[in-house]
């Protein structure tokens, strides 16, 4: 959409470094066996002529918000499944919007007008069947499955389409002769349980399109975080501190933009042998002040360094236990914290006018002897 010259060509989204992976692949690239989560090096081996584009999370987030806002005009019950996918419960909307099939046809039209993007729709009695239906005619089809058509609709599908069935589980299913949904439908529940164990009950129900889960709208943002994977493992502590400082400042900016403060701060590190460790601390009061969050992260980092310092493949920081930031003044204000809060506000205004890179916190901490 943003670069029409790429239309109809194999395109890969991701980094270009040795450790980069494919975040997304166009349908033309998938024809060569490229897929998301594949190492970029392998994808380019399969499709050397592919066009590689760097991810643009800001662009995707903006489109995702617009997409969800469109869905919310059709129903208040919208459950995001990913940036570009969601469940919408149309129960009770008939008198306002018309028959559900009519509404399902209107959704992609509205999405295209608002976002410029095409989407597919699956309409069915429950989430499981709707998800499968929406996948069958991507990128712009509409599949409607009536309540009395569910068994027939699912029967010919390969067992790999069942939610939660990965390569290992698929091999186990096939070992017992369950290659399609019809194979599971034709077996008794006790037989499937005997073959597949505890997972058999769930699989037997899904094969019949039985799914009682409700569409649940999210209760708000749970956490905000940043992380970075290095091209080569990094052992220099000062470089790691600089990266952490940039990450926590970005997180603090996002907190303030969304009107939140955080109580829990988590440090995440991953060593070259893929061992992942986290350390966290919880504050007595929530904050969005950059200097306070940085102080907590520095302490977590120092604790990790003192116990198990090793070269890192990845480092990241996140905040959780989010609270709505209060606009009211506290009765007793710490003048140092208040000064830092005003400083953050001034910097945020500079960034809003001149761009996020216009001003940033220096890596040198004047409170430490230099």
What fraction of the residues are assigned to beta strands by DSSP?
Answer: 15-25%
Mean pLDDT: 89
Largest sheet: 4 strands, antiparallel
Number of discrete helical segments = 14
Q: Determine the fraction of residues in helical runs and give it as a percent range.
A: 40-55%
Order of helices and strands: EEHHEHEEHHEHEHHHHHEHEEHEH
What is the CA–CA distance across the termini? 51 Å
Task: Kindly state the number of beta strands.
Answer: 11
Give me the CATH architecture of the domain at 233-358, please.
Answer: 2-Layer Sandwich
* Spatial order of the strands forming the largest sheet: 8-11-9-10
Protein architecture, described:
- Among the domains are: 4-55, MutS, DNA mismatch repair protein, domain I (3-Layer(aba) Sandwich), CATH 3.40.1170; 233-358, 2-Layer Sandwich (Dna Ligase, domain 1).
- Helices cover 42% and strands 20% of the residues.
- It has helices spanning 27-30, 40-46, 57-71, 94-97, 100-115, 127-136, 150-154, 167-175, 181-185, 189-196, 198-207, 237-258, 290-308, 335-354; strands at 11-14, 22-25, 51-53, 78-82, 85-88, 121-123, 142-144, 223-234, 260-271, 276-287, 312-324.
- The strands form 4 sheets. The chain has a 4-stranded antiparallel β-sheet with strand order 8-11-9-10, covered by helices on one side.
- Helix 3 (57-71) runs antiparallel to helix 5, helix 10 (189-196) packs across helix 11 (198-207) and helix 12 runs antiparallel to helix 13 (290-308).
- 24% of the residues are buried.
- The model is unreliable at 327-331 (pLDDT under 50).
């Amino acid at each position: 959409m943003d670069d029409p010259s790429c239309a109809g060509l194999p395109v890969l989204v991701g980094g270009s470094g040795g450790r980069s992976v494919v975040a997304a692949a166009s349908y033309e690239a998938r024809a060569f066996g490229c897929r998301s989560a594949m190492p970029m090096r392998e994808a380019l081996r399969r499709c050397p002529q592919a066009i590689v584009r760097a991810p643009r999370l800001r662009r995707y987030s903006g489109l995702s918000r617009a997409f969800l806002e469109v869905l919310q005009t059709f129903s208040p019950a919208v459950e995001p499944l990913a940036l570009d996918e969601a469940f919408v419960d149309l129960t009770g909307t008939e008198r306002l919007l018309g028959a559900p099939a009519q509404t399902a046809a209107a959704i992609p039209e509205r999405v295209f007008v608002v976002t410029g993007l095409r989407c597919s729709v699956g309409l069915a009695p429950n989430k499981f069947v709707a998800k499968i239906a929406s996948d069958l005619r991507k990128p712009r089809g509409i599949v409607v499955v009536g309540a009395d058509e569910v068994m027939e609709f699912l029967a010919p599908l390969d067992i790999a389409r069942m939610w939660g069935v990965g390569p290992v589980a698929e091999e186990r299913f096939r070992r017992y002769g369950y290659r399609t949904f019809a194979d599971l439908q034709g077996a008794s529940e006790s037989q499937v349980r005997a073959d597949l164990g505890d997972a058999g009950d769930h699989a037997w129900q899904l094969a019949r399109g039985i799914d009682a889960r409700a569409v649940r709208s999210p209760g708000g943002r749970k956490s905000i975080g940043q992380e970075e994977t290095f091209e080569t493992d990094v052992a220099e502590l000062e470089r790691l501190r600089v990266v952490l400082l940039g990450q926590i400042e970005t997180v603090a900016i996002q907190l303030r933009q969304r009107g939140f403060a955080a109580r829990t701060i988590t440090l995440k590190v991953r060593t070259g042998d893929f061992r992942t460790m986290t350390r966290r601390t919880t504050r007595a009061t929530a904050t969005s002040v950059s200097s306070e969050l940085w102080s907590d992260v520095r302490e977590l980092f120092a604790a990790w360094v003192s116990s198990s310092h090793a070269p890192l493949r990845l480092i990241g920081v996140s905040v959780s236990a989010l609270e709505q930031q209060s606009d009211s003044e506290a009765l007793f204000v710490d003048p140092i914290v208040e000064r830092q809060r005003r400083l953050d506000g001034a910097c945020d205004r500079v960034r809003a006018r001149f761009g996020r890179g216009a001003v940033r916190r220096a890596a040198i901490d004047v409170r430490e002897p230099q």
